[in-house]
Amino acid sequence: AQVVWTLSNFAQVRTVRILVDDQPFTIRGQDSAGLLRVSQFASFRPSSSITPNALAVVNSELVGLPQDSTRPVERLSGTFSTASWGDEIGRFTVSPSEDEVVVVNGVGNRLYSGSMTADVPASPILDGTIFTDPQFDDRGNLWVIDNLNTGVPQLIRRQAMNWSQSSIDELAGHRVLSFSLSPDQTRLAVIFQGSEGTEVGMLRVRGTDQLVVDGLERIVLNTARGELKDSLGLGWANDTRLFILGSTADDEHSSVYSTDVDGAVRESVSPGADVEAVALSVWPRAEGVSLIIRTSAGRVLKFEDRFRWTQVAEGVSLVGWAP
To answer: Distance of CA 216 to CAs 131, 203, 205, 213, 262, Å?
Structure first.
């Protein structure tokens, strides 16, 4: 992805074909001749340079979060800005164009679509078994994992209103609790239920019309407090760096860790031992960090710098981001 994006900055480059050991290398979006054309270059853009807006669910309503706790939350006018929209918000995501909000209901078995700004009714768009948190990529494709009764999780993608799916066979018998698609849409970081607590893994994502998900690598995260055993959430900070919220066998207190994709823990960036984080949300950026956590008491803290966090709201049940 980085090679393609770098070449796209040269106006004279109109197509790209990559060879490895004199053999064509498969690139997402290439045509039958193995060429990636200029119209596809934008999909290889690295982590966003956008500074996003933090959102939350307060009293069953989707609201905008302020910069600090001295200001009130921002009341929105969209589909899910009122508690009477017809169901309960279990998880949510916002499209890159900010015109669509997708919600998983509280039970976890239905996806709804609605507007971020217009007061229109919620529309059911997909029924399932147990959905994870949904996610939009920067091209507007919607991704979600459904934990089917068969025991084999399914990765589902909506692309241009067409649905496709792929079985994650290597996670058969495991429930996926959370996932995060990498900014270049080639890797899937997952938290899944293992035999002794949760595990963190990395999967490869391939294919344009037909999705292929394979290459599971279990990631062992060793911290200064021992091996990470109970992970609650994760998200990509950029193309190579993840934030993971979890606790260790030696310390049940949940902390936020910064780690590289190979599992090398860089550092703990948690706000302190007196803060019990239960959820986190990360927005990938080319520069800077967009990271918020929700505590067991319903407070929302925004990451400013290492060990420096600002409280922005309280009474919150869910957190997320919008472009």
So the answer is: 20, 5, 10, 9, 13
Taking phi over 0 as left and psi of -120 to 50 as alpha, with beta for the rest, 3 belongs to alpha
Q: Give the whole-angstrom CA distance, residue 157 versus residue 54.
A: 24
Per-residue pLDDT of the chain (323 residues; tens, 9 = 90+): 556 555 655 556 667 787 777 777 776 667 777 776 655 555 555 555 567 889 999 999 999 999 888 899 999 999 999 999 999 999 999 998 888 999 999 999 999 999 999 999 999 999 999 999 999 998 899 999 999 999 999 999 999 889 999 999 999 999 999 999 998 888 999 999 987 789 999 999 987 778 899 999 998 888 888 888 899 999 999 888 899 999 988 888 899 998 887 777 778 888 877 889 999 999 988 778 899 999 999 999 999 876 689 999 999 999 999 88
Q: Which pTM value belongs to this model?
A: 0.83
